[in-house]
Design a protein that fits this description.
Layout lengths: L8 H39 L2 H33 L7 H26 L5 H6 L4 H5 L5 H17 L2 H26 L2 H15 L4 H5 L1 H26 L3 H18 L2 H15 L4 H14 L2 H17 L6 H17 L6 H12 L4 H12 L2 H26 L15 H4 L1
The structure holds aspartic acid.
């Protein structure tokens, strides 16, 4: 926490350490779209019949919805127990508002843009009009998934003699991409260090953290509860011990923590779920990319607590039906949140508007929580990807596609090519 106090320390990190983290994130983003394409096509074509795909799809969406509603409910429960009324002194509030009003108005503008579309807009958005355009933008992951599923199903429906070479191509491509992920991961330890060092030097005004302590601790307790729930559910339904799950997922969790982005972490999440948790490709390749974009338990739990915190701290009483509104809107908002840093806060604006918080209070409220948003974003992203892994295990178990772990190393075939 102290490097930013030394003269030159900040500049050194910015110039020489930050780029390592940036390169690493770029590499992960670079590989995400090719990975989704190759692995999902291979996954679907391995299924052999479409009814299995329908089964996996239905269960995935069902489990995702249930886990999100559970997360929001836990968030509300904790927020109501914590009681934030009067927890922020007026002078601290003014200070927070001063320091962060710019950031807050940026989030509000982004939310207004999201909201100006109709209720079915997200379905419309899922269907691309040009696949190359969709592939050119990492933010259009759902469009790519739509195209790939469409392609995979059509591949299942044609004459096997004709589909065989196409399948063989994607099979080989998939192996190449997975090897690229292995190679990228070789720099992960240095990159994680670089990302965290950059965050530390870029953090301003750490004193304000303390004022927001009760709120931040409530979010962290809620997130930890979610991890506890995942471990219990995995143990009950698959018999896998908590240590097994945490050991398998810890590299992906560390990466989620340091990048604050489920999308950037996706290649590693997929690899860990498949090779270390033992979920077969047919399930992993569908459940993980879809989960990265639509299943965000950590984000929805945070939105519930943040919404109650803002309302209570600003003396805006919430009735029971307004709390129910939070359940519905936070569930939908977490589906709509992009899997990138800070996205959860944009959608929080929509949750707060839905409960009727006046615009002036809303701006103050957002400015209020801005100071601690990044560390909480890091923690909620860990929960987001852990939730995806849990659902992958449950779906895998329920369709008989959960096996033994089979880790691969980057140098498995190195001897043959020397
Ligand atoms: N950063 C989160 C994620 O990528 C989204 C959010 O809560 O802001 O999963």
């Amino acid at each position: 926490m102290g490097l930013y106090k030394f003269e030159g320390g900040q500049g050194f990190v910015q110039d020489w350490i930050k780029p390592i983290g940036k390169i690493f994130i770029n590499l992960l983003k670079l590989i995400a779209i090719p990975l989704i394409i190759a692995s999902l096509i291979k996954g679907i074509s391995d299924l052999k019949d479409i009814s299995k795909f329908r089964q996996i799809g239905g269960r995935t969406i069902g489990f995702y919805l249930i886990s999100t509603v559970v997360a929001v409910s836990i968030g509300l429960l904790i927020a109501n127990i914590a009681q934030f009324k009067g927890s922020i002194a007026p002078e601290t509030l003014a200070e927070l508002q001063n320091a962060y009003s710019d950031g807050a108005s940026g989030k509000m503008a982004a939310a207004a843009q999201q909201k100006s579309s109709g209720p079915l807009q997200f379905v419309v958005d899922m269907v691309p009009s040009n696949i190359f355009k969709a592939m050119a933008d990492n933010g259009s992951m759902l469009q790519v998934i739509f195209f790939v599923i469409f392609f995979g199903i059509s591949l299942l429906l044609i004459d096997p003699k004709k589909s065989a070479p196409v399948k063989a191509f994607f099979d080989g491509l998939n192996d190449v991409i997975l090897k690229m992920v292995d190679l990228i991961m070789l720099i992960a330890p240095y990159a994680v260090f670089a990302l965290l060092a950059t965050l530390v030097v870029e953090t301003t005004n750490p004193d304000l953290f303390i004022a927001l302590g009760k709120y931040a601790i409530s979010v962290v307790i809620g997130l930890a509860t979610m991890i506890g729930i995942y471990l219990t559910i995995v143990y009950i339904f698959t018999g896998r011990k908590p240590g097994f799950f945490m050991k398998a997922m810890s590299p992906a969790q560390l990466l989620a923590f340091s990048t604050s982005s489920s999308a950037a972490t996706l290649p590693v999440t997929m690899e860990r779920v498949e090779e270390h948790l033992g979920v077969e490709k047919e399930v992993t390749s569908f459940v993980c990319p879809v989960g990265a974009t639509i299943n965000m338990d950590g984000t929805s739990l945070y939105q519930a607590i943040a919404a109650v915190f803002i309302c209570q701290a600003l003396d805006f009483d919430l009735s029971f039906s307004q709390q129910l509104t939070i359940v519905v809107t936070a569930t939908l908002a977490s589906i709509g949140s992009a899997a990138v840093p800070g996205a959860g806060m944009v959608m929080l604006v929509i949750v707060l508007e839905a409960v009727g918080l006046p615009a002036d209070k809303l701006a103050i409220g957002l400015a209020m929580i801005f100071a601690v948003d990044r560390p909480l974003d890091m923690c909620r992203t860990v929960v987001n990807i852990s939730g995806d892994a849990t659902v992958a295990m449950l779906v895998g178990k329920s369709v008989g596609k959960l096996g033994e772990p089979r880790p691969k190393n980057w140098d498995d075939h190195l001897e043959n090519v020397r």
